[in-house]
């Protein structure tokens, strides 16, 4: 009996490992297939840009008519010149901002210049302690956004920081 029990055990271990490997492979395939099906159900099919460009009549410079993908989407953004100002405290600290204004309608160059001057004047009243850390930066962004909206009488919808450097 001992010979037959010893001879029977190694095949069981081999078959147990083989069954475990088969189960892992099967579950992986089922999980991958399920993920693919859910992804197909949730994600929309990608648009075919070639079909749209052939179907739409070409406008100026070969862009589709109506300005959907042309300059119409970018015409509401005005990149301001870099703003460099001394902070109120410590007075030897400099701040450099590069900001873009997002207008609700067409860009107004005069309003953009006024907003830029207002941001420069405001930055000269801010101390380094007020703008340190993520919370301080968030407060600064909110303050500048509010000032831009007030100064532009609601023409500026938002502002975007491109760079923010303190020396």
Automatic annotation (TrEMBL):
Biased composition, class Low complexity, residue ranges: 54-63
Intracellular or extracellular location(s): Cell inner membrane; Cell membrane
Signal peptide positions (record): none
Main location: membrane
InterPro entries: FliL (IPR005503)
Region (Disordered): 49-71
Record bears the keyword Membrane: yes
Cellular component GO terms held in the UniProt record: bacterial-type flagellum basal body; plasma membrane
Membrane topology note: Single-pass membrane protein
Keywords of the record: Cell inner membrane, Cell membrane, Cell projection, Chemotaxis, Cilium, Flagellar rotation, Flagellum, Membrane, Transmembrane, Transmembrane helix
GO biological process, one term: bacterial-type flagellum-dependent cell motility
Residues passing through the membrane, by range: 16-38
Family, per entry: Belongs to the FliL family.
General function of this protein: Controls the rotational direction of flagella during chemotaxis.
Annotated protein name in UniProt: Flagellar protein FliL
Source organism per UniProt: Neorhizobium lilium
């Amino acid at each position: 009996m001992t010979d037959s029990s010893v001879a029977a055990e190694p095949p069981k271990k081999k078959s147990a490992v083989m069954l475990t490997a088969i189960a892992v492979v099967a579950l992986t395939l089922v999980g991958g297939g399920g993920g693919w099906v859910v992804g197909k159900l949730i994600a929309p099919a990608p648009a075919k840009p070639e079909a749209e460009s052939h179907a739409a009549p070409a406008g100026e410079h070969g862009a589709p008519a109506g300005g959907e993908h042309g300059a119409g989407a970018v015409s509401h953004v005005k990149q301001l010149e870099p703003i460099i100002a001394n902070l109120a405290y410590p007075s030897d600290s400099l701040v450099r901002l590069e900001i873009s204004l997002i207008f609700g309608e067409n860009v107004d160059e005069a309003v953009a210049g006024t907003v830029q001057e207002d941001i420069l004047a405001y930055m000269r009243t801010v101390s380094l302690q007020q703008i340190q850390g993520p919370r301080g930066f968030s407060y600064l962004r909110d303050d500048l956004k509010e000032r831009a909206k007030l100064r532009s009488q609601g023409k500026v919808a938002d502002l975007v920081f491109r760079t923010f450097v303190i020396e």
